[in-house]
Amino acid sequence: MSTNKTNITKDFKEKSVVLVREFEAPLADVWRAFTESQLLDQWWGPAPWRAETKSQDFRPGGFWLYAMVGPEDQRHWARMNYITINHHKNFEIEDAFCDENGKINPELPVSAGNNSFTEIPGGTRVEFKMIYPTEAALQTIVDMGFEQGITICFEQLDELFKNKKI
After folding, report:
1. What is the CATH number of the domain that holds 119?
2. Residue 144 lies in a domain
3. Cβ neighbours, 10 Å, residue 28
4. What is the dihedral of CA 155, 15, 99, 40, to 10 degrees?
5. N or C: more exposed end of the chain, with fewer CB within 10 A?
6. What local confidence, expressed as pLDDT, does residue 46 receive?
7. Residue 121's beta-bridge partner residues?
8. What is the residue-wise DSSP string for 14-26?
9. Which helix (H) or strand (E) holds 156?
10. Single pTM value for the model
11. Which of 58, 24, 56, 49 has its CA nearest to residue 160?
12. Furthest C-alpha separation in the chain
């Protein structure tokens, strides 16, 4: 079923990027991988970087505060605000760069997004749509290596499923 490829579509007119990936894993496991910080920490950062959670409150109005930790222990902080949550279907977010206390950095793009999960034969399809305030903001994210980074992350998640670690 799965081609195990991350399909990425950028639309600069709509200021959006859509990622689609299928995983050979049950929907409940894929949902957990995207919503539980102890699992996110295992795959969210593109190696050799890794995600390290400072706090997570997965409910509408809550947020995930984490650092992307580099091989020299560099830390770049990010915050994912949870807007709405429909258990095992989708969750809407606001995604931003911030400081270690969660204060949003206004100099970097803030995006709005929707992560949807669909059961398919043999697995789960994830669609991840992010919308940016301007074309320049989307270009900034592209220039920062978003596509390569998220592709590596999804490959890492795929390995966790294949090795039955989730």
Report:
1. 3.30.530.20
2. yes
3. 12
4. -20
5. N
6. 93
7. none
8. TTEEEEEEEESS-
9. helix 146-162
10. 0.94
11. 24
12. 43
Q: Is residue 34 in some structural domain? A: yes
**2 belongs to a structural domain:** no
CA 83 from chain centre, in angstroms, equals 15
Beta strands in the chain (DSSP E): 7-11, 16-23, 50-56, 63-69, 75-86, 90-98, 111-120, 123-131
Q: Which residues contact 71 (CB under 8 A, 6 or more apart)?
A: 48, 49
How confident is the model at residue 35, as a pLDDT?
Answer: 98
Interatomic CA distance for residues 147 and 104, integer angstroms: 22
Instruction: Provide CB contacts within 8 A for 3, sequence distance 6+.
Output: 22
Tell me whether residue 1 is in a domain.
no
**What is 105-138 written as a DSSP string?**
-TTS--EEEEEEEEEETTEEEEEEEEE-SSHHHH
The tally of domains found in the chain comes to: 1
Q: What angle do CA 38, 154, 33 make, to 5 degrees?
A: 30
Domain that holds residue 89: 7-163
